[in-house]
Amino acid sequence: MRLPHDPAPRGKDVVVIGAPYDGGTSYRPGARFGPQQIRCESGLIHGVGIDRGPGVFDLIEVVDAGDINLTPFNQHIAITTAQEHLSALLADNSAFLMLGGDHSLTLSALRAVHGRHGPVAVLHLDAHSDTNPAMIGGEFHHGTPFRHAIDEGLVQADAMVQLGIRGHNPKPDSLDYARGHGVRVVTADEFAELGVRGAADLIRERLGDRPVYVSVDIDVFDPAFAPGTGTPAPGGPTSREVLALLRTVGELNPVGFDVMEVSPLYDHAGITSVLATEVGAELLYQYARAHHPKNTEEEE
Amino acid sequence: MRLPHDPAPRGKDVVVIGAPYDGGTSYRPGARFGPQQIRCESGLIHGVGIDRGPGVFDLIEVVDAGDINLTPFNQHIAITTAQEHLSALLADNSAFLMLGGDHSLTLSALRAVHGRHGPVAVLHLDAHSDTNPAMIGGEFHHGTPFRHAIDEGLVQADAMVQLGIRGHNPKPDSLDYARGHGVRVVTADEFAELGVRGAADLIRERLGDRPVYVSVDIDVFDPAFAPGTGTPAPGGPTSREVLALLRTVGELNPVGFDVMEVSPLYDHAGITSVLATEVGAELLYQYARAHHPKNTEEEE
Amino acid sequence: MRLPHDPAPRGKDVVVIGAPYDGGTSYRPGARFGPQQIRCESGLIHGVGIDRGPGVFDLIEVVDAGDINLTPFNQHIAITTAQEHLSALLADNSAFLMLGGDHSLTLSALRAVHGRHGPVAVLHLDAHSDTNPAMIGGEFHHGTPFRHAIDEGLVQADAMVQLGIRGHNPKPDSLDYARGHGVRVVTADEFAELGVRGAADLIRERLGDRPVYVSVDIDVFDPAFAPGTGTPAPGGPTSREVLALLRTVGELNPVGFDVMEVSPLYDHAGITSVLATEVGAELLYQYARAHHPKNTEEEE
Amino acid sequence: MRLPHDPAPRGKDVVVIGAPYDGGTSYRPGARFGPQQIRCESGLIHGVGIDRGPGVFDLIEVVDAGDINLTPFNQHIAITTAQEHLSALLADNSAFLMLGGDHSLTLSALRAVHGRHGPVAVLHLDAHSDTNPAMIGGEFHHGTPFRHAIDEGLVQADAMVQLGIRGHNPKPDSLDYARGHGVRVVTADEFAELGVRGAADLIRERLGDRPVYVSVDIDVFDPAFAPGTGTPAPGGPTSREVLALLRTVGELNPVGFDVMEVSPLYDHAGITSVLATEVGAELLYQYARAHHPKNTEEEE
Amino acid sequence: MRLPHDPAPRGKDVVVIGAPYDGGTSYRPGARFGPQQIRCESGLIHGVGIDRGPGVFDLIEVVDAGDINLTPFNQHIAITTAQEHLSALLADNSAFLMLGGDHSLTLSALRAVHGRHGPVAVLHLDAHSDTNPAMIGGEFHHGTPFRHAIDEGLVQADAMVQLGIRGHNPKPDSLDYARGHGVRVVTADEFAELGVRGAADLIRERLGDRPVYVSVDIDVFDPAFAPGTGTPAPGGPTSREVLALLRTVGELNPVGFDVMEVSPLYDHAGITSVLATEVGAELLYQYARAHHPKNTEEEE
Amino acid sequence: MRLPHDPAPRGKDVVVIGAPYDGGTSYRPGARFGPQQIRCESGLIHGVGIDRGPGVFDLIEVVDAGDINLTPFNQHIAITTAQEHLSALLADNSAFLMLGGDHSLTLSALRAVHGRHGPVAVLHLDAHSDTNPAMIGGEFHHGTPFRHAIDEGLVQADAMVQLGIRGHNPKPDSLDYARGHGVRVVTADEFAELGVRGAADLIRERLGDRPVYVSVDIDVFDPAFAPGTGTPAPGGPTSREVLALLRTVGELNPVGFDVMEVSPLYDHAGITSVLATEVGAELLYQYARAHHPKNTEEEE
């Protein structure tokens, strides 16, 4: 992930782009420093995964386009700025991997992706459904992006899987909204029962070969594995389980990615940033696997 | 858990009560700040559990009665003060949830509960058996509460399960004492083998429908999940496993609760306090489930 | 582990020896303070393991010989100094347990052990294979010890198991080197599939009753369990899994041990040091089990 | 400062009120948790100042009215909500002490104070002048409150002293604006040259007996004394110097107070919160001194 | 301060002795780990002071006698155990330097010193007077040692100077008690006015050549310089000022020393422990200066 | 300091260059991450200094050339690599500002500067003289650079001032060496007596208009102001004093700069990195002042 820096990339396979913003955060702030810290820790990542033949950077072209310049003060402006920036990247490149930043910006990403691919399938790993209603003064807070996305027709809700969901939601709650629109919600406990292979099968069955956007809220991991985040939720899966699941993303048709909600202010040993880097690197490799199958076929 | 504050509650279902004290701590101090920190982090908890129908606060009446005023300097005075305070709460309300504070205060709790219910069954989640003998000058240190409780006849030792026990105890040790009095000790490894369902069955079989006091030492969790505690013990269960087990407490007849040994001084990202809040919220919901079954029946 | 201090031990079963050095560290430093911090946290350890009859210190004689005086500035001098010190210990005692310090010093240990036992089998728990080539100016960095050891004929490579390996290694990589020499590499994912018993069987089959050196890099644990280390690698096993595996070491013929790569600078709650202490204590007990089987037979 | 809690106070001398908000923060967030943390640390404060006769709480009536409920998402709403809340307090009580929260809310305070007292004098202790222009999407960011206040006629700019100012401002800068409106800017270096007594004289001369609002940005202290803040500026005064200066506030005619910009996320040992508590307690005492001179006359 | 270890020293000039205890702490605990952490950080200290001729360890014999074994649970037992241990040291050696541990143990020290020297003069550097009355259950809490010492006739109160006092004490307060017995109280502000030389003169005038016990509570320093302590008090002197004052102790007749109240739990960068080490090393040098004047005369 | 990035600058006034290396560190490591962290915190710096007319970046051309690629493993290679890199920069640009990294690299800088300017005067701000002899295996450790520089004839020792020196050095010590070669040593205490203006006069008198290299070890500040460093030394000057002194550097003839020994691992609130940024920014401004006097003349 010590990628070549290119603020105006053209013709790349995946552009890594930082989104330093936490203006949508309801509880613990700090995700505005997420991209910076992920880059600091990414010195640990030299390639992607053991026993995989060539490295990801031999398979696809990836650059780091730096950070989007986002106001911390106004959600409307931030959401729009991010969307325009991401749309511009997609005009000249195949895909992006956004490093957050709070989850509200996934709406920007989905708008940009929709502009290129139309309504997409979604694989959403998170402790929270993020299909809550807007609040007064907070139309685009970080609990809302997928509700907006469904309402705006950016995604195919019945080709959407949310995995890792847990926590506290008295009825009626945001899960009713998601399920009511056809989203398949896999709770953290259900993921534990299904196992990685069972979950991967369920996802592939649901999403098929539709273009799929993959959004990873770092709080999908139990707080032991990712303490550095704004709304930690105990009872989540381990890093081994989620990373194993991400290794199956290449069986899908991924067209865009994000890794969100890393708050370095709660990440004293940097393990959250290291984990986010690993997630990002894995997603890049899966993109290569999905779209350059010849080059990676020797893997299995 | 941003509960209504009521320093002199009457007629409530469960009273949350802080016990800011670590005068019984043998190793790392700091549990005196546990209640304060748990309250700070409880802003994350809005309800209890997904897919459960109405919220817990629609089912039962819960208030926060603040903290017991406890001297850090004298174990006898502290144990007695806490017991009197808790007894007074039980005179006017149905049950309490004590937030510790070190584990020695569970003796106070069991004395108070015994005063209302007679000898009770116990579900004790902990890395340590806490059935050690007193020490010179430390009659009520935090490794002794259940030995005192057995000796004083406060509990039905053969209706007592200790789960999560691990660590280092050359023979003869405190487990001999516990087992010698009929306590069923489930080690951390045995819990892993039994699984959540197996452990829940074992517990229900042992405790039946007796009134049961549930005591959770936060160090029952592996230190990865709960670093903020005084005597962390590696090799413990995950948050998912313990929380899943707690979700079966409503199948029993719970009459009192505590969550002990949270030391914020070792909890830099607050994940221990967040987890303790979750444990507390789950226990409240299980109380509702056990005692207001109609209201929660739509859950399963 | 508050062991009797003896800077010049003779006739002991196991000598605990600190190696405060991180001159071979490529990324995050701080392992130079590992031994100091492990000793600080070892107040938690009073014996070894529950349900095991007598304590380890009733079975074997163990002393703490303090720290080796190692320059932080020159790898050649440090490696040689450590080897001479360890060789001297082995001349007068049966075995040592080295507390690191970075992993490069395991080369010193293997040279010393080879001097007494000839080529030994190896059980190596680590996220990384540590069979990388030397670098200019860094002939003995912490990614190289097992390559040097194989090249120098210190170990029986076909009686060597590396377990917990994971992370990012584009081909061709250091695993090719290890496997090419007959090393059995068990990745973190394969360990999860095998389970503790399966892995223990595989190890015993491979190593038989050969003299075996056991080297534990604390980063074999997932960073959630051991954040305080220099090159944390997400996706690793839990403390329960690794500790359970270590409990089978007594079925082998262990002749030396190390616990390496603890960096207190990233260990704010001390859980890594506590875990390292537990690993060390378990290894001592397994040594007793292996070499004093009568005394421990009542265990199972 | 463990004050009686009264969410709807009437007839009090000073009402302490929390403003948990950092939606105006440009750099490091976290001031939203300032009031909570200041209350946690205030257990250290039992009275106010040595050698002063009776305690402050024997002289004036002070209560803690809890926190204003502020959206983190929208500056306009937050500023207005805070102002309405503070105006309501002033309708029923003599003065307030606001605990921030970021400095943008001082605009709310000055609007409320203006509503009761008309244009007031200001003593503003800060590393920054906070007379910057608004930004697109951030009309009320934390660098703007005194510019808005001057523009809105809430303050008498020529009876305004800013003390502690330092840092980096290429010309033309916000100081031009302040000075252009008659504000007396005392830089950190000038404060060092004047000494406490010289500065106090300058302030009294400038402000006379006009009603004065005292606003303390915790970053007026050098970061060594107050690391827990959003925009730390090296080269500031010591705690002794600023506290000594605050002890002269009772020579003025204070009508309102705030202590702003405490961010616990950067305050690992809590010394910033402890200092903020001390500042607040001192301001309360100075209010008593100014308005109840008989009771405190034995002091000198 | 990496001194030779000698658990049973005889004939030494000064014996360094740890007192790991915080059973007298009213607010923030952790001083029980003070001695351990001071020893960890003392690797920084190679000698004592620049431009001073020979090193202190060439002038006097100093050993480290390890820690006193103190129960955390019972103040009476702890105070007595410490006193007996210190008395035994004084029976065989000239003086001790106690590393705390909370300040209540200074009573033990004064009892031991009184046993050898009769009533002594005292130089007491602290933010707090520590002449408070006992509390129920806390007869020997850390705010009481000098009141007990005066009441027990261990010290010559009119040859006692307390320097650095500050903070919050509504009248009547503990200063009345101290002054009423003839103690000279130099507040932090008065120290700033006097300057180092003025304060040193005042002290020498007051104490003359009486045997003097020097007790340094680390909280005499402003919290910026010593955050790692239990009751930090803003507005204190700098490290330069206090260290300069300590350099005049050799003009007195010192017979014993302590450095108390270091709590590593609040000392994330270790600067408090480093400062405590410096204070201790300076006191050792001053002892040499006072009692071996020939050897150090070339200094000035 | 969010400077334009230019890895191969030509014709610039000052090139900022990172030196991520701590292979010369004797005690606390971590300076290898200094440049990275300083860049992270530099978002706080928008210009340089108040009341100064145009900003520094309007006066001189400054770019950030990124980091030198330095092995952590071999002092000889690192020192040589850094020197070659810096010499290459000086071939094409006027001056550099090196961000360390440990102080041993100042030898590289002085070699490079000597290659362009011949023997230079030196202003060296530090707690330590850094004129110690080499150690076995550590010829270029961080306590040696100025001894090597004097021995190699890179500097004019009699036009060298070391300021801030303090700490523990039994005689004979490194100060003898420095003074013996004509270096003027101003101890921390002497700096306090001289005051900023006195010290500045002393420096200007000594250095005159010779080309001067300015080296700032961040540990010149008291640890309260700069905890994030490897060998903190209590009793140092404040940030206000040192920054005020640096503001006089423009009266000299500066030709190169460094800011060394920032270790983020001990800098939890980032105040050391912020201070280092301020020091660097001030040095840039002073370069402009010295070499573009017309542009800055309106300042005074």
UniProtKB/TrEMBL annotation, chains A, B, C, D, E, F:
Entry cofactors: Mn(2+)
For the keyword Manganese, the answer is: yes
Ligand binding (Mn(2+) 2) = D126
Gene Ontology molecular function terms on file:
agmatinase activity; metal ion binding
Q: How is the cofactor bound?
A: Binds 2 manganese ions per subunit.
GO:BP terms for this protein? putrescine biosynthetic process from arginine, via agmatine
Matching Pfam families, A to Z? Arginase (PF00491)
List the keywords (alphabetical).
Hydrolase, Manganese, Metal-binding
- Locate the residues binding Mn(2+) 1: H103, H128, D130, D217, D219
The record's section on InterPro entries has: Agmatinase-rel, Ureohydrolase, Ureohydrolase_dom_sf, Ureohydrolase_Mn_BS
- State the similarity comment: Belongs to the arginase family. Agmatinase subfamily.
Please report the name of this protein according to its UniProt entry: Proclavaminate amidinohydrolase
- Natural source organism: Streptomyces showdoensis
